[in-house]
Amino acid sequence: MANTPLTPGIAPSRLSAEDLARNFGDLHPPLDGHEAAVAADRCYFCYDAPCIAACPTEIDIPLFIRQIQADQPAAAAKTIFDQNILGGMCARVCPTETLCEEACVREAAEGEPVQIGRLQRYATDTMMAAGEHPFTRAAATGKRVAVVGAGPAGLACAHRLAMRGHDVVIYEAKPKPGGLNEYGIASYKTVEGFAQREVDWLLQIGGIEIRYEQALGRDVTLDALRDGHDAVFLGIGLPGAYGLDDAGHDGVRPAVEFIAELRQADDLSALAVGRRVVVVGGGMTAIDAAVQSKGLGADEVTVVYRRGKGRMPASAWEQDLAASRGVRFIHNAQPVATHGNGTVREIEFAYTEEDGPNLRPTGETFRLAADQVLLAIGQWLDEAPEGLERDGTTLSTQGAGRTSLDGVWAGGDCTHRGEDLTVTAVAQGRDAAEDIHATLMGEG
Ligand SMILES: Cc1cc2nc3c(=O)[nH]c(=O)nc-3n(C[C@H](O)[C@H](O)[C@H](O)COP(=O)(O)OP(=O)(O)OC[C@H]3O[C@@H](n4cnc5c(N)ncnc54)[C@H](O)[C@@H]3O)c2cc1C
Ligand code: SF4
């Protein structure tokens, strides 16, 4: 992917190759066998385990930890993949501190949960490294399903449908699969091309064809997909990024665009970054943009969020990670204007006060010097297929992802349900696949 044209203050090669390698190295290095055994020993194997309920894919966590303890990592991996076929990626990217590990009884008792995420990675990596795929396809049903989008929702749906014996064609707008696993998630969470390796591994099930650079609405219509297939699943994510009313300066861009460029870069030293970077937003995208800007060698990186610290969508753990990498936070301020002469020089903010759910400016403003401004203020479904009911900026669904059109299901970020997380998208793709299967087989 090409860099955007350079603007003054935004330059490549700010750090040495060694510094870049350190800054973008694996955030949670894998456990070895001995470390995994020690970590597994801490589990109480709770009856009615709260960690299971806290996992959107409801993995049987005590069972897989017991299997690791018994030195059966392949069995542990199968337990994980039964519920979550992207269990390898989720082990790397799930905010476990707000999901299973937050619910772990040892977190409540001692402030030190069982390391569920790292144990999950140990099990899934072991099986994937052995090149094993634990599932086979059921007898062919003769049904064909179109899946739109090869992100976590689409891939999870496609895999489950293929397992149930259906033939699946995935229509993907981009030249690579993986969705935000490939183009969005921070590099230090998924190193060494893991997103592509995981897709290759998942496709070993067979029966899934991916057609790249085939965008719904551009290259193919929903009517044609409905005519040519027995069912359609939409897992198209949220392709549009919100901007500022006043963003008419070079150097101001969506954070997701900056991150996608970074994720596709073969050489990080060729990637341009500002000296003074301001990130607007308070979610994972804001944190990732800030930490990675710092990692590329920006001198000052400031995240500005419109509400208080406790209201930031990014977890406290993620905020601490950013702070530990030298990122500064300003809370209760929202952007009102950018200033410069063609190129951004400053960004102006108004301080805010919270009044229940509402925000109001206090009347006080301030400016931050900036040669790069990254906007992480949300994404939306900019082009929804016609004929589908919406719920605000996302698709409206019922039950396991049934849309307002017969034979069309949807899941993941493009729908209004659940948190926008990889694991939630996987759960919704999987559940929609089971509902599609039951419907096609006359069981639903
Ligand atoms: C910067 C960033 C960092 C994140 N970090 C984390 C994290 O650390 N942990 C976590 O759990 N979650 C994280 N998330 C959220 C997570 O990535 C998403 O919730 C998840 O990827 C949603 O999966 P999805 O399949 O619904 O959508 P996507 O991953 O967006 O995939 C949608 C796919 O559909 C394709 N597509 C779109 N439109 C069309 C079309 N018209 N025709 C054909 N194909 C189309 C896209 O190219 C893409 O491949 C992050 C998100 C961002 C933006
Ligand atoms: S809550 Fe913690 S201790 Fe209990 S089963 Fe889950 S991981 Fe093990």
Bound molecules: flavin-adenine dinucleotide, iron/sulfur cluster
CATH class group of the largest domain: Alpha Beta
Strand order of the largest sheet: 4-3-2-5-19
CATH superfamily of the largest domain: FAD/NAD(P)-binding domain
Identify the overall geometry.
globular
If you average the pLDDT, what whole number results? 93
- What CATH calls the topology of the largest domain is FAD/NAD(P)-binding domain
- The low-confidence runs, each spanning 5 or more residues with pLDDT under 50, are 1-5
Strand content: 15-25%
Structural class: alpha/beta
Distance between the termini: 44 Å
Number of helices: 17
The domain count comes to 3
Radius of gyration: 22 Å
* Biggest sheet layout: 5 strands, parallel
Give helix % range.
25-40%
**How many strand elements?**
19
Write the layout of secondary structure elements.
Blueprint: E1 10-11, H1 17-23, H2 33-41, H3 50-54, H4 61-69, H5 73-83, H6 87-93, H7 100-103, H8 105-110, H9 116-129, E2 144-148, H10 152-163, E3 167-172, H11 180-183, H12 194-202, E4 208-212, H13 222-228, E5 231-234, E6 240-241, E7 252-254, H14 255-264, E8 273-274, E9 276-280, H15 284-296, E10 300-304, H16 316-324, E11 328-330, E12 333-341, E13 343-355, E14 358-369, E15 372-375, E16 379-380, E17 390-391, E18 394-395, E19 408-410, H17 422-440
Parallel strand pairs: 2-3, 2-5, 3-4, 5-19, 7-15, 9-10, 9-15, 10-11
Antiparallel strand pairs: 1-8, 6-16, 12-13, 13-14, 17-18
Helix pairs in contact: 2-4, 4-5, 4-9, 5-9, 6-9, 10-17, 14-15, 15-16
The structure holds flavin-adenine dinucleotide and iron/sulfur cluster.
